[in-house]
Amino acid sequence: MNRDDAVSISRATSVSRASRHGSTVSRSQSLINKNIAPHDLRPSDILIERFVAWKVIVKQLIAYFEGIADIENNVAREMTKLAAVIQVPFRSGNQFLGEGGLQDIYYGIRDKTRVIADEHANLGRTIDGSIVQHLQKLRVEIKAHIKNIQNDTGKLATAVAKERELSGKLIGDLGTNISILKNTPLSVTSKTDPYVANQSVKRQLVKQVHTENALQKSLLLTQSSSALFEASLIQALQSAWATFAEWRTRMDASIRDVWTGLERDMGALPPDREWIAFAAREDHLVDPETPLRDVQNITYPAKDDPSVLPVHSGLLERKKRYTRAYREAYYVLTPAGFLHEYASSDPAQADRPLWSLFLPMCTLGPPSSPQAKSHKFHIEERKDGVGAPKTGSFRGFAGSLGLKGRSAGRAWAFRGRSHDDMMEWWNDVRMLCARYLVASEQMERSGPVAAAVRAAGYVSEDEGLDDEEGSSVEEEDDEVYAEARDMGDEDETELPSYTHGGHGYSVRRPYS
């Protein structure tokens, strides 16, 4: 009988053989039978490998909770720094209420932020001191369980292997003794007697079976205890997580109450409390009942001086030079003798005149009759005047006409919306022009305008005429007017033809 035949006599081989004939074997028995083969792993190695894996996953969970603890501790430190941002009491002077105002809310923000930091720090300490230490103890228990498996089933597995090896040796010796007996019967001794050798084999097989049964019982016991131990591991992990969830829920509820309290305190502050208190103790704020200033109420030197008050203001139409169409604009007649044209009647939009005419250097033509279709009058430059400041003088104009020693000027035509409006303008302009032509039915004007003009330094027509009222124009002037009427291309508008003989017009000069 060879060594393989000896191994086939073992209990494992017989069970495997019965299994091949259709008998059912439990999973544990198959595991044992598989792992107690001579050249296979020991049956305890599978359990050891499993709990080594358990040790790894518990270590991972320990690292996880340690990370959470670090996060909570970091949050606690950052929240503590954040609380230090709130500097109370306020140091910006006596600007806010000491109590019952915004400063109390800021005190609450600082203090309750520290409370939130303490909550995070408490959770971090709880995780470190309770959950992580509990899991570390669990990992130590796993190591102890692995060591117990190695001490119990590992030693029995080694003993089974030795007994099998010894059984194989004795069976081999029995075969040798039987061969000697058959070939050389006389050389058999008492020790090599096949009967004696067979008795040794039987005793060894009994011992081997007892060792194998002890290994099997130990494996069954180890498997049962390992199942219970693994269940306790799961329960320990669940307990650790439940503890973490409980403390986390408690911390979240506490922090939520803190945030809710801060929100409630901030929302309860009346928006105008601080301002009312501030306005009550400050003497430099403007009283809401103080009326707004009006520029009309401002008094300054020469505000009511007659020279700054307009003699007449309103809308007039002036004939354009080239298109010969009338354009309406806002005009102001000043006591200084200027007729100013503005783009608008609003001083804020038009503070400077677009066009100006100095009337003391001009001659005013007669107004149109009430029956005329167009209510207009003309203003002509004097021969020694400079005309409108914007357009400059036309000195040498008479020279261009071939008149030596004489100068002629331009003329402007103005039109009013009605005859009365035109006469208002004409009467006011009359008092400021150097000369004016009037109809036989003279219209006199008196009132505040004349008084303003006299106060500005200009003499009225009655005071300046002396004995010249009704006198005719000098011959030199007649020639200039006649020559100016012939200059249709150079003048801005066609001059009216004035006859001084028998048509009822006279020339008056308010200035001597």
UniProtKB/TrEMBL annotation:
Residues 461-481 have a biased composition (Acidic residues). Residues 1-26, 461-512 are annotated as: Disordered. Keywords: Phosphoprotein. Residues 310-436 form the PH domain. Residues 10-26 have a biased composition (Polar residues). InterPro entries: AH/BAR_dom_sf, BAR_4, PH-like_dom_sf, PH_domain, SLM1/RGC1-like_PH, Slm1_PH. The keyword Secreted does not apply. Transmembrane segments: none annotated. PANTHER family: CYTOSKELETAL SIGNALING PROTEIN SLM1. This is PH domain-containing protein. It comes from Ceriporiopsis subvermispora (strain B) (White-rot fungus).
